[in-house]
Every structure is written in structure tokens, then in C-alpha cells.
Amino acid sequence: MKPTILSLLTIIFLALAVQAAAPIRVMLLDGESGGPYHKWQLVTPVLKKQLEETGLFQVEVVTAPPAKGDFSNFKPEFSKYQVIVMNYDAPDERWSAELKSSFEQYVKNGGGLVVVHAANNAFGKWKEFNEMIGIGGWRGRNEASGPLWFFKDGKLTSDNAPGNAGNHGARQPYQIMLHDTKHPVTKGLPKVWMHQGDELYTNLRGPGKNMNVLGTAFADPSNRGTNRDEPMLMTLSYGKGKIFHTAMGHDVMALSCVGAITMLQRGTEWAATGKVTQKVPANFPTANSVSYRTDYAAMDPNYKKGLNGLDR
Ligand code: ZN
Known about the structure:
By secondary structure, the chain is an alpha/beta fold.
């Protein structure tokens, strides 16, 4: 049969439709944290569910060996994935130079990376990793790691004052202020919105190269804060790779915030593809009221409704 223009167009259309429907391949990396306060085993299924419920992602969990585990066979095929979502916080010595190099090549060649909360504690002295994440805390970071970064008078500002990196006050709800609502990740969002009970990371330090701070939160001195607008949502580039970094998300309760979920879903799509096709949910938080999902509570036995500002 002679192909008609119509049948050729049908074939092209079907090919495009198949391409459009192909899910984004995500590696969700976990396996270790800096202490018992970060329950990564509980957080991973929540992050996976949040990503998969968009219908955009196919998530594969890759669990690194524990602190005293055998890393000789841990050679993840990073390039199989369009984006790596990091729910992982290990010290510098945990990964071999070869493993670090393979991760660097992946991002340099255009692989996406999403850094969630304490993942910015990982690898305090790994230079290339710190360039990817821009800023981080704890694990030996100090003035040698780079300046403190914050927003002042509407501009990203740095301060070389000495001191250890990483701090936070008691958990409570806080406002996120967006400084860039033209970026695909934050487009269409309210300029100010309330994040529910979470740690507000302060005194983060690092090279801050190629870093665009999309949103900050004011660290109130009455809650051990710095009196500064601290970076909470960042995009960065490293080689051809795109990085989305959120300092929010201490635990399942913090990750139940509709704002935090939206940022994870949109940030992951952007880091993988450079675009965001998702709509802003109708129940997105407003400037003065939190908005959170209750369906994740069952995934965390320690989840206590009403604690830390959840219902305030
Ligand atoms: Zn935390």
C-alpha cells in the first residue's frame, strides 16, 4: 500500500505522543544520614509518592551501603537517569575518588540533581559537590568552605565572617519569599507563602557559583535566627547539568506542606528537562496560612498532628 500523507502524519503524531508520554527517569538516592534526627527510610517513600503522583516520573530508589558497609560493588549507573533526587547525607570519606568522579561526569554532561534538606550537609569537603549545591551546612564546613549567603536589600549578598556553617532554631511555620517568579520552577506562585512547621536552615556557606536564589525565609532572632533572609530555594548549573536545591523538608510532616511538595515536583521536572509543565495546585498555601496534605501522615509513625505549628 502506498503511504498517504494522512497515514504519514498519523505515524509522526503517534511517535511524538509516545515521546511525550515517556516518564522522566529519576534515581532517588538514599542510604545514610548524619544522625537519627533524619529518618531517611521514612522520607524516601514520601518523596517517591510525591513525584510519581504527578504522572511525570518513574522513580527508582537506589540505597547506598550503610556507614560501615562494603562500597566495592556500589557503582550506580547515573547516566541511566535524567535526574538524581538526593535524600542522602554521607561524609567525604564514604565515596571513593572514582565514584565521586563518575557523579561529577554525570552532572557535567547534563544530568539533573535535586538536593533535599540535609542532602546539603553531605560531603563537606568535596569541592565539586559543593559547587553543585552552592551552599551547605555542618560536616566541617566553615569560612574555608566559602562565604555565608543571604538576601539583603533585594539582592543576593555574601559575608566572609568566620564561623561554622549550618544552624536552625525550633521548628515552626515560616514564610517563603520568592525573589524570582519568572523562573519555570516558581512561575505562577504567590510571592509570599507560608511553609508549615520545619527547620529553617541558616548560616549555610559555600562557593555560591552559578546560583540563582529563587526564595528565602527570614530567620527570626527570637528563634535563634540570623536576622537575615536565608536562601531556601535555589537553582544552579554545573557544566551542562541543572541543579534544584531546597533547604526545606526535615521530615514527613515538613514534606506534607503543599508548597514543599509543589517545589519538589516542579524542581525535579526542571532539573531533568529545563521545563515545568505542571499547574500550581489550587490549595497552594497563602501568605498567612499553611496548607498541607494529610495523606502522608500514615507513612510516619512519629507524625503528630498539631505539633510544631501544623495546626496553628
Ligand atoms: Zn533536619
